[in-house]
Amino acid sequence: MEKIFNNTEVAFSLKSDTELERAYFLFKLIESQPLVRIGTAVTNFALKAHLPVEGLIRSTVFDHFCGGVNEKDCLSVVDKMFTKGVSSVLDYSVEGKEEEDQFDAALAMTLKTIEFAKERLAIPFAVFKPTGLGRFALYQKIGEGKSFTDEEKAEWNRVVARFDTVCKMAYDKDVAVLIDGEESWMQDAADDLVMEMMRKYNKEKAIVFNTLQMYRWDRMEYLRKLNAIAKAEDFYIGMKLVRGAYMEKENARAEEKGYKSPICPSKQATDENYDTAVTYMLDHIDHMAIFAGTHNENSSYQLMELMAERNIAKNDSRIFFGQLYGMSDNISYNLAANGYNVAKYLPFGPVRDVMPYLIRRAEENTSVAGQTSRELDLIKKERARRKL
Ligand SMILES: Cc1cc2nc3c(=O)[nH]c(=O)nc-3n(C[C@H](O)[C@H](O)[C@H](O)COP(=O)(O)OP(=O)(O)OC[C@H]3O[C@@H](n4cnc5c(N)ncnc54)[C@H](O)[C@@H]3O)c2cc1C
Prior knowledge:
By secondary structure, the chain is of the alpha/beta class. It has helices at about 10, 15-30, 35-50, 55-65, 75-80, 100-120, 135-145, 150-175, 185-200, 220-235, 245-255, 265-285, 295-310, 330-335, 355-365, 370-385, and strands at about 85-90, 125-130, 175-180, 210-215, 235-240, 290-295, 320-325, 340-350. It is about 55% helix and about 10% strand. Strand 6, helix 13 and strand 7 (about 320-325) form a beta-alpha-beta unit. Helix 6 runs parallel beside helix 8. The radius of gyration is 20 Å and the shape is globular. Flavin-adenine dinucleotide (FAD) binds near residues 246 and 266.
């Protein structure tokens, strides 16, 4: 497959020189793991103490990784990216809430983003997190096979109703909806619920998408089982394929509680597992749709290759590539320039509420995780090209 991701002119075509410098400065900062750790602690403290740090966060890490504080704020970014063929997924990135009114607010926001998506070609998907619509502990209790009190039963029924409201509206408006994957000890309950939604709303095509985190060694078996059910019951499978964002947490919990870690034994094993899932989905693409959420160049090339081998059009509506806003523009913009479907998650929300999301991004971009050096190299290359 022709290597296309090194074209920095295309990758940064929307960035002015100043914006390019800002990105360089930011990645330089978060390259240092100790700095990220200290920065995270200081920022959390400052926010809790109501110190006026929001402006500083906004002008640095927030503006780089987020579209704005509300959905309307994001529209200028959405329109700008779409001039280069890159779509957006508006991602209400408020996390860790535990109250009913907060779940209802997240529901209302998700419905709003479906409306937005309905009106705009540039927004092909809506997205939500299972724990955005219900308490983590409830999912966990189901997963552990524990029974609910009457009160919890009523609470869970409200979670199911919220899922159904989103998926029904997605179906009625013909907007696909991605449902994020989270920690393994709550995911079983979410998987069952999402399958229920697929059964109901994926009769004609994939509207509801679950997420498979391929750092889990049990996910291929899950996908095969789901496929057997979908075939028997005649519904489509929509699946976002990612590697997974909670590896340290998963390993730490497994060690602490003394069970076998659900995570693959090595990065290579995760990579192979991811590639196996991509191939499997393409082998069954007649009743599946795939959203490949990855910043991994090899995985992206592999999917491009598989599509070419099978004579699948680059813009086949069943296949999307996805990256996060503020990362791997070299993949997103070059894919779009070459005619593939690409969408970037565009997070938004009040600054203090999106901090857990921003901290995850900063952590995964330290030099240890290895992303940053690539981002920095690409920016340096583009700087040099512009000087010439
Ligand atoms: C559009 C989009 C949507 C996403 N949605 C979700 C989501 O719903 N849920 C979620 O959990 N994450 C999600 N992510 C994040 C994703 O799971 C990864 O954390 C992130 O994309 C990095 O993986 P990668 O494939 O891009 O690349 P790479 O940099 O090649 O892979 C890094 C990943 O490999 C795995 N890994 C690293 N070291 C090891 C090791 N020693 N052993 C085993 N595995 C290892 C980890 O998963 C790590 O994150 C999403 C990412 C994108 C781009």
